[in-house]
């Protein structure tokens, strides 16, 4: 929470400056760099709480900011004239290192960081220009980087003079809105490398609080200016904020910081500033750093369900929860939240079934606690469709599968086999529901019209059941599919509201139909006369069951020629038609099927890429981790055959490693929890060594004959994994 501590237990923040001044006076030697120590950090006045601007159950991290916010621009005060250049500064530093006299350097740092005005005077590219646009911050980044790179190698009193100046700036009495010079100063101060040291965290926290409390218009400028920071510096800023949050949650030396109860605003302030960098990162294509670089794995060790429930209960209040900023929560932590939320829903529904049974004075049956699916292998799709449609009220119960006529108990293997067989059958080209694009190696929805789209709903329900029951599926949908699946992330109450419709671009089409996307890209860059040379109209043609059908992209599109002036509109409408409108009914059924199982506010925490990882697993392979977690049956890990096996596998190319994983588990991707979650097992096969290895994909089990040497093992293994498809050899 953001409850304020008792103010009378704190001395004023000004005492902190006095303490630093006293320490400075006691330092006699300026010549040697030493470890910076900030004393008495517990005596800090608690400032007013920040305004969090929390919106109930919305992802603040991906809010789309307007291109320009019309805000009154306060007059900029006149800046002092400072003429020192990068070369002048570098010369001063070199002279100080050789002579031991740091006075010139000390004077520069103490003057430059003494106030926000001085910071701008030193680092603004042109002090006579206002730089009031989002395109250019006006900061001389090269000079800032040189000054900060040199700072940590200066004597202690130089470093302390910088911190004293920062404190002076933060203590300034603000009247009215911030100027753009103030925002520039905040941008520059955030990059101070001294804030990586825990002894400066009190000052850092107050800097973060002031930035977090800025207006939305000011945040808008900071977000766009942050896009211009180099990748290395940007990553350092993000890592510094993540470290600050981690060490405040789990301090190595608790006595270094004020008690948590008296600085509850530290973590919310840092998280909100981190959200600004996340927003900046999201505006760039490709992003400056990966979205996974914003994950804080420390949060995996806190009470995530409490965070989740706080967010659900207090989402529109000033009670802080990390779920308000889901970009900081790792996919592993999100999986825990979703699984536990799913388990709670499973238990709740099972309990209600039991209560209903008892209230009718009927004998309870343990089967009522599960979603029991009974299917015939010969009628797999139709039986599965009927079962899921008939038992729609039970979809949130634990799944158990029975193959009719087979005496198998489902301990997890039958469920996985059901998923594998069903997915293979539904996605087969002959089935006609999905089209496989060889260029992109992915499936997309067939645009053929039909009377019943219930089978698309079945596929959506299958994906939902897989997430709900922690099953990894071997499905190849493009990223845009998962973006559509979260549009919106919560099923709207009004059934007339469109679902599965999202903004799509040429980049999305490239991931599905690269050849067509390339052709449209060529159209956009064509330098000749588009109308005369292409002779196209706002109309598209599609083949459906051997018949060519035409569709207008806009009213009377067949009569509107594509020209140099309107070709962007044509491409936009064409892509929207292919990825949204032409498959709307198919995808809407798929959307409702998925959300019939996975309807949860936890979906608001997920990015489209994270939904894909939950459904299909991660493509990142770590075979050494698989080796460490593998179980053995009939073998010991020290046996010569096992040593041969791992020597061979670790030497495989990535392609062969993926083939091995697909051969043994039914998928070449890794569950969210990593290789350990595969429960991979190697069993000794008592067959002839002339035989190839065999896999039981339902149990992630590889049966390996005791081959006599490494060469034979490698040869047989490569033949097995390269030619096996499904449940037999090609």
UniProtKB/TrEMBL annotation:
EC class (word): transferase
Domain HECT: 391-730
Active-site residues from the entry: 698 (glycyl thioester intermediate)
Entry EC no(s): 2.3.2.26
Keyword Ligase appears in the UniProt entry: yes
Domain of life: Eukaryota
One GO process term, biological-process aspect: protein polyubiquitination
Pathway note: Protein modification; protein ubiquitination
GO molecular function: ligase activity; ubiquitin protein ligase activity
Keywords: Ligase, Phosphoprotein, Transferase, Ubl conjugation pathway
Any single Pfam family the record assigns to this protein: HECT
Catalytic activity reported: S-ubiquitinyl-[E2 ubiquitin-conjugating enzyme]-L-cysteine + [acceptor protein]-L-lysine = [E2 ubiquitin-conjugating enzyme]-L-cysteine + N(6)-ubiquitinyl-[acceptor protein]-L-lysine
Function: E3 ubiquitin-protein ligase which accepts ubiquitin from an E2 ubiquitin-conjugating enzyme in the form of a thioester and then directly transfers the ubiquitin to targeted substrates.
Designated name of the protein: Probable E3 ubiquitin-protein ligase HECTD2
Biological source species: Pterocles burchelli
